[in-house]
Amino acid sequence: QSALTQPASVSGSPGQSITISCTGTSSDVGGYESVSWYQQYPGKAPKLLIYEVNNRPSGVSNRFSGSKSGNTASLTISGLQAEDEADYYCSSYTYHGTRVFGGGTELTVL
Amino acid sequence: EVQLVESGGGLVQPGGSLRLSCAASGLAFRDDWMHWVRQAPGKGLVWVAHINGDGRTTTYADSVKGRFTVSRDNVKKTLFLQMNSLRGEDTAFYYCARSGYRYASDVWGQGTMVTVSS
Q1: pLDDT tens track for A8-51
Q2: Which residues of chain A does B47 touch, with a Cβ-Cβ cutoff of 8 Å?
């Protein structure tokens, strides 16, 4: 159950768009429409941003969007804001009936 | 208000046991898949285990299989994680979370810290 692969860090300026990738295998990301994305501030619990690849829960800004191609999923944040500075995690259901998270990406807003 | 509140964390010696609880309020609970997720200090999220609504289906990460047991009391709306044979690498914040969507957790507790050290 290896963790999904995410870049350790990304950065962008206010107003810009950034994309965070999440790479797995055909046994997890590529095999199911199950990728979700979470935002976590230091010392706080994670918050769900995207479920089932590209769906936003009620209350989540439409600046957050998700997509998937093959074994790689992506989270795009448009119109970057200072408050978006946080850690971001992807997650997927797996062939073994478990869940797996990515290693996390630290977003810095310059 | 929908809320999950974990308790039961603390300091335990290697080889020891601990039982975590997660009290739910404001949600149906009995129909919800529930998860435990942990996070070592300064590290990423790691899925630990999940259990279905009636408690008959459980699945575990390889790293805790045979040592941890997840269970639930739907009358008391409480989720449990029994942790035995604890190791230093089990030191982490432990979060409980609800699967409000089929593959995603929409409600999380605030976490409880478990420290395994002599």
Answers
A1: 999 999 999 999 999 999 999 999 999 999 999 999 999 999 99
A2: 91, 98-101
pLDDT digits (tens, 9 = 90+) for B42-80: 999 999 999 999 999 999 999 999 999 999 999 999 999
| Angle, CA of B54, B57 and B58, to the nearest 5° | 120
**How many angstroms separate the CA atoms of B104 and B31, rounded?**
15
pLDDT (tens digit, 9 = 90+) per residue, B4-43?
A: 999 999 999 999 999 999 999 999 899 999 999 999 999 9
User: What type of residue sits at position B41?
Assistant: P
What is the greatest pairwise CA distance in chain A? 40
Q: Are the beta carbons of A22 and A73 closer than 8 angstroms? A: yes
How far is A42 from B1, CA to CA, in rounded Å?
23
A64's CB contacts (< 8 A; 6+ apart) are A37, A49, A50, A56, A75, A76, A77
Of A32, A45, A98, nearest to B108 by CB-CB distance is A45
